[in-house]
Structures are given as C-alpha cells and as structure tokens.
Write a sequence for this structure.
C-alpha cells in the first residue's frame, strides 16, 4: 500500500498538474469560487448508461417509425445455409484468398462459385439494414443538434467566447457555472456512450481512429476539468459539434434517398468542417493555448500534455479532411454524392476480395466514405 501511495503522491504532484505555487487545496470548491470538482468525473458514467437506454427508446419508437414513413425498408438479407467449415473460414482472421476458396471447394465437394456465393451471403448477414443505419445516424444528429444549441446558449454570455484570453485571466481561480457543469457532464456521458456503443454499432474501417478520438476527447475533457481548464474545454466542444449536425443530416437524407438534399447538406458540412476543424480549432483555440496562454499564465508540465491532446485531435481532423476532400472530388466527377455517406464501414468490403468484415465506427461521425457505382453493384450481387 505504501508503494501505491507513493506512486499516487508523485502522480498527483501539484507541480506537475498546476501552475507554480498552486496546490490542490487552493482549488478546492468553496463558498467564493466553485472550482471544478474532480470527484464529479464519476457522474458521466451512470449518465452514459442512461444515455444508451435513451438512445434505444428513441431509435425504436421514434427514429425507426420515422425512417419507415420515409420509405426506408428494414430488409433482412437472405441467410447462408449452415456450414461449419465455411463458418470457421469466414470467422478466421484476415482475408480469404483464392487459394483458400479452391481448397474449401475441394474439401466440401462444391464449386468455387458456390463457395464464393456462400461467403457473399454470409457477409450480407452481418450488414446492417439501411433502417438500422438511419436510426444510428438520427441519434447522433439529435445529440449534436442539442449539444451545439445548448453550447451556444451556455456560452453566449461568457466573456471567453468573445475574447478567448478570458480563458486564462485569473487562472486557475475561475468558477464553474451550473450551465457549464451540465454541458461538460452530458458531453462526457455522450463520448463514454460512444466509446462503448461503437463495438456494437455499424462496423467501420476507421474504428481505431474513432476509438482514439473518443479516448482522446474523454481524456482531454477529464484533464481540463481536473485542472480547472473548463473554459477552453467548452470552446473545443462547441467548435466540434457544429459541422457534425450537417454530416449526420446528410447521411439521413442519403438513407432516405433524398439525393439533392444530401448533396446540399454535404456541401454545407464540408465548408463548416474546414472552417471549424481546420480554421477555428488550430488558429483560434490551439493558437491561444500554445502562443497566448504562456504570456498570461505561468507554464506547468501538464499544460504541455493538454496541448499534446489538442494536437492529436488536429491530426485526426487532418486524416478525416483527406477522406472528405477525396469524397468531394469523386462526387464532383460523378455529378452527385455516391455510395454511403459515412466513414468506411465493413459492408463496403468487396465481394471479389473474398474477405469478411473486419471485427472492428465512427463509428465515426466525423468521416465519410465514397464507393463507386461498380462497387455498389458488386455488393448487391
């Protein structure tokens, strides 16, 4: 126990986490200043469970009927006949190569075409229906719409929205208002719920990028809360939620076959993404934390970790921007937004490749994927 206590004392050394000459006792909540209380970080965990339950209710009793009313069908793919040998091959790691297909065909006394058709049917069983994807997207659209709206209302009368340097004035002796407290707790609960639900949602190729995104976001928010950096944290939140509203809207329109609406929303999303993720985020927020803050606040080791997490998010934004620009280019060439408007999902694995869906969203709400018409045709064979 003494070893653990020594480790914790060193880990929570105020010289690492707080500005010089500031101790943890100095930022304990009191009658004069309502400092952020690190013990409150446990609150989002049960809230995340509540949010998952709320999501289930909304998807089943609101979004699903809405999708059906828009003509989205909850069609279930034809099931592959039971076959233990092919099932083991399908569930094995890696791609099923042509040599394996030949071997399976000889072992089972089937033609190669019959084996390939079985694998296609088996893969299609794991593909979510369009209605399922519509419901998932609608839930994220609802959250981002609420979060951005509440964030603007919450920050409208806060001085640091209009002058970001107020994030640093008198730091760390800054009170947390009740509206900012709820903004943080609900946002943390949502990202915790995403970190859990992405293991069960539509599988996408950017699974690990999104997992890193969720963990980095949770870490950034928790860190900023512990160090009473909630002001800059609220600006990061409101900046990130804006574009996602239109991304999810574009997906919903795509699933409902409103192509022109989808195209228009995608254009708005792309513009907002570039403005907020590659404009405001690095040039306003990161510039403030990296350049302006040292002029106002005495630096401390955890400050550099804080900036590292912000830059990590920026690197993820650059990755997704590359994907988005690629979609935009291909869409302009095709004359419309084609394929599935979302991050690469497992159902976009080519049948000809012979590979089964990876066992791995956003599901990131933050990236898009484009498929050519020929790929779409092959997926429906």
């Amino acid at each position: 126990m003494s070893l653990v206590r020594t480790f914790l004392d060193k880990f929570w050394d105020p010289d690492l986490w707080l500005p010089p000459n500031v101790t943890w006792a100095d930022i304990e909540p009191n009658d004069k200043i309502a400092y952020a209380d690190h013990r409150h970080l446990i609150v989002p965990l049960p809230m995340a469970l509540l949010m998952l339950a709320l999501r289930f209710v909304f998807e089943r009793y609101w979004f699903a009927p809405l999708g059906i009313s828009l003509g989205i069908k909850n069609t279930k793919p034809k099931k592959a006949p039971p076959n233990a040998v092919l099932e083991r091959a399908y569930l094995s790691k890696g791609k099923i190569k042509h040599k394996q297909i030949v071997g399976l065909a000889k072992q089972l006394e089937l033609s190669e075409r019959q084996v390939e058709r079985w694998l296609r049917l088996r893969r299609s069983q794991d593909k979510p229906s369009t209605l399922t994807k519509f419901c998932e997207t609608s839930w994220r659209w609802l959250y981002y719409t609420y979060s951005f709206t509440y964030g603007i209302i919450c920050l409208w009368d806060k001085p640091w929205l209009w002058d970001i340097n107020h994030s640093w004035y008198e730091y760390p002796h800054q009170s947390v208002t009740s509206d900012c407290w709820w903004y943080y707790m609900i946002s943390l609960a949502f990202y915790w719920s995403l970190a859990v639900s992405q293991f069960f949602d539509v599988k996408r190729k950017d699974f690990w990028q999104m997992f890193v995104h969720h963990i980095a976001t949770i870490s950034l928010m928790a860190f900023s809360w512990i160090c009473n950096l909630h002001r800059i944290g609220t600006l990061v939140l409101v900046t990130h939620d804006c574009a996602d509203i239109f991304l999810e809207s574009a997906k919903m329109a795509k699933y409902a076959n409103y192509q022109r609406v989808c195209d228009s929303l995608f254009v708005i999303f792309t513009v907002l993404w570039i403005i907020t993720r590659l404009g405001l985020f690095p040039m306003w927020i990161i510039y403030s934390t990296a350049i302006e803050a040292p002029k106002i606040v005495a630096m401390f080791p955890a400050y550099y970790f804080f900036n590292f997490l912000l830059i990590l998010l920026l690197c993820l934004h650059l990755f997704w921007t590359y994907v988005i620009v690629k979609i935009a280019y291909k869409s302009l060439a095709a004359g419309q937004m084609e394929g599935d408007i979302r991050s690469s999902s497992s159902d976009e694995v080519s049948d000809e490749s012979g590979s089964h869906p990876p066992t791995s969203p956003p599901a990131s709400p933050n990236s898009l994927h484009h498929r050519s018409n020929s790929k779409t045709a092959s997926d429906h064979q």
In short: Confidence is low (pLDDT under 50) at residues 339-381.
